[in-house]
Amino acid sequence: MISVSNLTKMYGDFTAVNDISFTVRKGEITGLLGPNGAGKTTTMRMLTGYLTPTSGTVNMGEYRIDEHPLEVKKTIGYLPESVPIYGDMIVKDYLEFVRNLRELEGDTRIREIAELCGIEEIMHKSVGELSKGYRQRVGLAHALIHDPEILILDEPTSGLDPNQIVEIRNIIKEIGKKKTVILSTHILPEVEATCDRVIIISEGRIVQDGYVNQLRSSFDNETVIRISLTGPNYDELAGLLKNLPGILEVREVEGTPDFTSAELRLPGDVEVRPDIFRLCVEKGWVLYEMKRETFALENIFRELTQGGEQ
């Protein structure tokens, strides 16, 4: 359904997107995941035809976007991060305006989209009066009004409160039952809660591509232990932990001012917790937490994108 081949975008000497290739199958919800500045929005804008690539090609279905831009735009719906809707219009009038621009007929589609996006109760309100969550829903209705085969969403839950985030996720999952969806985000729970597949991008390059469960299984040979204690500072703690057998890496965990906290990465078949406990007893430290867990998506993301923020 979507085929991207050797896509590159340069601004002078700066390469925002660097020779990426991927495909999205019909009916998939795919997340383009990466830290801020990784190249996600630039990629999404090239997928929609808003930006012209420096090199590479984008195919939407049977059409190549640089050769058949109008045909491609008929097959896609696009919701940018900042929703471009007229604040002084009534919601119903705005959707009718969009319908007329698309040369569609009748009110049936507007009623269907209003129900799908959960905006029936605010159709009489001015767009400028709406909360960010409802503005996002109206933008989603705009993107869907011509019943596109492909939906492209750039940071669809950015700036929403937790309840609004859950509601938008549910709408996206419902849409994904019938359409191909690609969304960009830097929020890990977004991918886990919404997407079938994830493409992780860092510094303009794809560093991992696969289904969420496949990504986890590829890291199942490693595990993480998190500890919080009082007594040592981080440098002292890390220096001693690195001497324990099997530990591959020690990272500081910030945000716990009353404790010294660290994250240890080690092979999945290594058991080091008794050694940590004995070290704490020997040094007279007070151990408040020691938790072992498998490599979560958060750990995978950090592992693949460390140093990727720009």
Task: Write a structural description.
The protein has 2 domains: 2-213, P-loop containing nucleotide triphosphate hydrolases (Rossmann fold); 221-294, MTH889-like domain (Alpha-Beta Plaits, 2-Layer Sandwich). Helix content is 34%, strand content 30%. A hairpin with a 2-residue loop joins β1 and β2. The chain has helices at 40-48, 69-75, 91-101, 108-117, 132-144, 162-175, 188-194, 212-218, 234-241, 273-283, 297-305, and strands spanning 2-11, 14-24, 29-33, 55-60, 63-64, 76-79, 150-154, 180-185, 197-202, 205-211, 222-230, 249-252, 260-267, 286-294. The protein is built from 11 helices and 14 strands. The radius of gyration is 24 Å and the shape is elongated.
Structural topology:
Blueprint: E1 2-11, E2 14-24, E3 29-33, H1 40-48, E4 55-60, E5 63-64, H2 69-75, E6 76-79, H3 91-101, H4 108-117, H5 132-144, E7 150-154, H6 162-175, E8 180-185, H7 188-194, E9 197-202, E10 205-211, H8 212-218, E11 222-230, H9 234-241, E12 249-252, E13 260-267, H10 273-283, E14 286-294, H11 297-305
Parallel strand pairs: 3-8, 3-9, 6-7, 7-8
Antiparallel strand pairs: 1-2, 1-4, 4-5, 9-10, 11-13, 11-14, 12-13
